[in-house]
Amino acid sequence: MKKTILETARLKVQIVQEEDIEPLYKDCFSDKEVMKLLLGRTFTLKETKAYVEANFSKGSILDFCVAFTKVSNELIGYIGMFTYGYNNREDEYEFGYILKQEAWGKGYATELSLGQIKKLKESFPSCTIWATAHPENMASKKVLKKVKMTCVEEQITMPKRGLRDVYKLT
């Protein structure tokens, strides 16, 4: 049985299972539109498997996990909650989400963002919460503003991610 990390009104976030890798590859990692502002390129199935094995959670809330609709159990993408590693300060966390194209424009990004913020606040009550978005990703920047995040740095280069705008929960 899959371990659920968080739930929202319409969505559930769970620990990745082997059967999730191919849908993640098909709907996210091999999709040029999904990946162009995330990592700048698509992945092969082999690269996707290696990435999932190296980066997805085995049980902690602080890692990547897969997101599903509650009603149909359809995989819509993945989310991540992490220690924020760019300030070298304790009690600072970052969240993010990656959705397949069919899930865009349905309010899922906002719902997942609010769910992740709530989960981080419950788990780490005095923490500072961060998020990043590619400067050209207008939809994600709009979501971050909607969930009360403020842009504090623009167009900084982050290792392994490239150009990003940095947001802080206010």
UniProtKB/TrEMBL annotation:
Domain of life: Bacteria
Keywords, alphabetical: Transferase
Record domain N-acetyltransferase: where: 10-150
A GO molecular-function descriptor: acyltransferase activity, transferring groups other than amino-acyl groups
DNA-binding found in the keyword field: no
InterPro entries assigned: Acyl_CoA_acyltransferase (IPR016181), GNAT_dom (IPR000182), N-acetyltransferase (IPR051531)
Transferase listed as a keyword: yes
Protein name (database record): GNAT family N-acetyltransferase
Organism: uncultured Sulfurovum sp
Organism placement in taxonomy: Bacteria, Pseudomonadati, Campylobacterota, Epsilonproteobacteria, Campylobacterales
